[in-house]
Amino acid sequence: MKNTLLALAITAGLSLPAHAVTMDSATLNGNLLDTSFSTPSLIALDVSLLNNAALSFSFVLDAADIAAGGADFNAILRDASGFGIGSLNVTTGGAPVSWTAGSVRAATVNGDLLDANFFAGATVTEFYFGNPFYEGGLADWRIAFAGLSAGDRFTLDIATTPAVPEPREWMMMLGGLGMIVLSAARKLGR
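Given the sequence above, the corresponding structure tokens read:
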């Protein structure tokens, strides 16, 4: 639906929202991305993870970005695969940007927010960097461009791993597999 609306907006000649720092390319590996909440001073990524393949975003800076000195950053990573997010790693490459960390939160299966130990026994289904919902008391991350020039590029790489099943889930899976093997053996024995 979003792609259809985007195509209609482009063919109708409507202008799309300006983006902070030009995204040159994105390697999504089958995942979905929405950047429509980005503004000239904010990089906003809304990512729906359909699998746990790595994501990579390449950005190029222009003179206005350098003059601004940096851009705010927020993101929502949403697990749509059903496996949950077991761990998360965010790295940058290319031009040496510096980060000022803002708020980080995660939501569990039932929507409860986790503030300290994100991966402590609960399957994380959403991860929030910065303040994507404009809530009081939360801060966006800040990417600084000190020492960089127009035309410099940097990448943002995000890697997730699926949540590891708990021991009782392994036991249930092994029990189910045992029942399948027993059923197959009985059928072969007839």
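The first helix runs from residue 2 to 11. Try to locate this feature in the token string yourself.
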